[in-house]
From TrEMBL:
GO terms for molecular function: FAD diphosphatase activity. One of its GO terms (cellular component) is chloroplast. CDD domains: NUDIX_Hydrolase. This is Nudix hydrolase domain-containing protein. GO terms for biological process: flavin-containing compound metabolic process; response to light stimulus. Residues 115-238 form the Nudix hydrolase domain. Keywords: Hydrolase. Pfam families: NUDIX, Zn_ribbon_Nudix. Coiled coil: none annotated.
Length: 275
């Protein structure tokens, strides 16, 4: 089974909050002009410094996407050297009417378009605690994660999240609501995280986990999480719980240029909106 590979980002957790270091892009568009796949979502105001969500920082997505780190973009079309349909060699060119460099088969002429992958997972709530799994596989071996992984063809995001939770934590769960959609453009991934509850109070490590454990909200191991997507998801969740109840969040995770992939706290969360 494929497993998600993640990048790190600029951590915007409250403990690191420094108002003087807020990054606001000069070319950021007003939220009202941003495309929103969720009309019911509210943009996060950048002036409410005292709100829990004020820890989210804003930086130019243009600056991020044009940074040297984008050289590591997962969708490097030049890595596609052979056609997936006929095995013929590809050439790399911009097709008529297109704007992007594509891998084009020199035999059958088909174009290998590269599109993001979806990662689905569950944030399992039980007795005011959250279920985390310690990864027994690379990347991020030995670090904690929510049960999550790549969606398979033929299953919905909810089905994938339930399956991943069963595989990684031997836990049978019922999904109760969507919680977060987080895009990571640099590596071509979109996370869809659902809130869920245990159907039975049983769980144990699956083959990809060395340990599964319920963590109280105030005891989540933020410095031992596997990926920045997990830092973002759990930070938003804890903030929501302390504010009353979980919302639904949309956001884009951008890695801070020049930071190590293992630095899970070095990211910006852009275009953050919530219900
Ligand atoms: Zn071909």
């Amino acid at each position: 089974m494929q497993k998600a590979i993640h990048i790190s980002g600029f951590f915007s957790h409250r403990c690191n909050w420094k108002p003087s270091s807020i990054l606001i892009s000069s070319n950021s568009k007003p939220f009202s002009s941003l495309f929103s796949p969720y009309p019911f979502l509210k943009p996060v105001p950048i002036t409410t410094i005292d709100s829990p969500i004020s820890t989210v920082r804003f930086i130019s997505s243009h600056a991020s996407s044009s940074s040297p780190s984008s050289l590591h973009f997962a969708g490097n079309v030049r890595n596609v050297k052979f056609c997936q349909w006929c095995g013929g060699q590809t050439k790399h060119d911009i097709p008529d009417g297109d704007e992007k460099l594509r891998a084009i088969c020199t035999i059958c002429g088909k174009i290998a378009y590269q599109n993001p992958k979806m990662v689905a997972g569950c944030l399992v709530e039980h007795d005011n605690k959250v279920l985390l799994c310690k990864r027994n596989i690379q990347p991020s071996h030995g670090l904690w994660t929510l049960p999550a992984g790549y969606l398979e063809i033929g299953e919905s995001a909810v089905e994938g999240a339930i399956r991943e939770t069963r595989e990684e934590a031997n836990a049978d769960v019922e999904v109760t609501s969507p919680f977060a959609q987080l895009d990571i453009p640099l590596i071509g991934q979109t996370y869809m995280i659902f809130l869920a509850k245990l159907k039975k109070p049983h769980f144990s490590p699956g083959p990809e986990s060395s340990e599964c454990q319920l963590f109280p909200f105030d005891d989540i191991p933020f410095n031992s999480l596997s990926f920045s997507s997990m830092v973002v998801t759990l930070s938003l969740y804890v903030e929501d719980i302390k504010a009353g109840k979980p919302k639904f969040h949309y956001g884009t995770i951008h890695k801070r240029p020049g930071t190590s992939p293992s630095d899970i706290h070095a990211y910006t969360l852009d275009h953050h909106m919530h219900s």
